[in-house]
From TrEMBL:
This is NADH-quinone oxidoreductase subunit N. Keywords: Cell membrane, Membrane, NAD, Oxidoreductase, Quinone, Translocase, Transmembrane, Transmembrane helix, Transport. Belongs to the complex I subunit 2 family. The gene is nuoN. Residues 191-498 form the NADH:quinone oxidoreductase/Mrp antiporter transmembrane domain.
Amino acid sequence: MTVAQLALIEAPSVAYGALSPMLIVFGVAVVGVLVEAFAPRRLRYPTHLVLSLGGLAAALVAVITVAVAQTRGGGLGEFVMSGAVVIDRPTLFLQGLLVVIAIASVAFMAERRLERVVAAPAPGRRVSDGPGAAAQATMSSVEADMFTPSGASVPNTDAEFEATRAGGLTTEVFPLTLLAVGGMMLFPACGDLLTMFIALEVFSLPLYLLCGLARRRRLISQEASLKYFLLGAFASAFFLFGAAFAYGATGSLQLGAIGEAVGAAAREPAGDTVLPLIALGLLAVGLLFKVGAVPFHAWIPDVYQGAPTPVTAFMAAATKIAAFGALLRVFYTAFGGLQDDWQPVVWAVAIATMLVGAVMAVTQTDVKRMLAYSSITHAGFILLGLVAFDEAGLAATIFYLAAYAFSTFGAFATVAVVREPDRQSGPHLSGREATDIAQWAGLGRRYPLVGAMFSMFLLAFAGIPLTSGFIAKFDVFAAAAGSGAGILVVIGVISSAIAAYFYIRIIVAMFFADVPVDAPHVVKPSVLTTSSIAVCTVVTIGLGVFPQPLLDLAADAAQFLS
């Protein structure tokens, strides 16, 4: 290629303003990595906390600013980075929601009042080696976070004990979380499959690490991390293979170009749609894995139970938002022409997801596993919006994502403050999370505020009126019924009735059952966790009583730019 020919190539324009929310989050994450590498250990925690919350607040302001600029005068948004990123109304709605959830998640991860561990011995005092001797000599305790002090140490060994006593903190969770948030913000904004795969990996890899960093129940946490990594790697491979088939069928990775080629083939009587259908099937495996739909749901109960509870809350809320955003974009903009072919399959997946999640949740004895199966059931409800495949369905879906995100985050955060009686276990002097449902008996009578808040979240999951869950389910059921999927609505109502049983079972146990021996107690958290739970509570009740502003916002955002 000659110099003259090179001069004719136009460099792609980069709309830094439209990309500013993601650039801010990624930039703060990179700065966080540098802080982790060069800052003194005693300064890392406060520096990360201020940096992360400040960066996310700036990103939220940037999202609002970009949304105002892009939608002024009825605008639908714009393509940036040569079409690789689409800044349209659904993108901005979901990015704003993700940043709000991320702020609450970072605050929850920074909590340091729920755990107490042995303190370092006084200067000059000799302590013999071994956890038992050290714990006897060190009677004082210090507050700690919910992450292991040394992710590289073998669980329940002297190395882990010494790292705890030395005051080790895994502050890497803050930049890892920000990297995951940045990938999640990019995932539903992708305009081509290659960028979407990169975004998928960017937010998945930090989550694999975060799941294995629990301070308590280390072996279960590491098992959860390994399961998530292995199954996630397979799902990513399916997604990439689907992108290859899409390119082979249409000659492009751009979602808009794929949609045009697929639509043209579907309209022709002799059009060949075999390769596009194979591509869609493979892509759907990767995306349905992330949303936790049956039969790609097996990882969710183990990962949600084993991961640190702040990470579980973050995943349960944010991952669903990002994954459903990408799923909707792929189906609406790239494969809408094959609606008659893929819709029966989505019907089957939605039915299986609603029923399997509800039935399996009934059999659970662990609160976190029960909430995990509940999240699978809700994934089935959200898929009803995809079945509707119109603006009403899209609006109902993104409203449901907003309502569910706050409710599930608040539920997991509440679980974290309910603790077993204090007893020494290695370097730990406080009790573990009381996640056995039998332990929650009588909790509502002894701690009415905690019992009332957790009951409110459960009632929202059940879809009881005056909660956000009722409005969300009504909206998505109405959209599905309006598109002719009345049978799905009936099955959804049956699934909701099954789910209501195990939600109400916990409420009855909290307020009407006898208090067990060694009953758990509620540890008062700091303002970081308290404010997160309070916001989730207010939003859950507020959207049940005054849902119209967010419903209108979701309706305005329900139009993809293609």
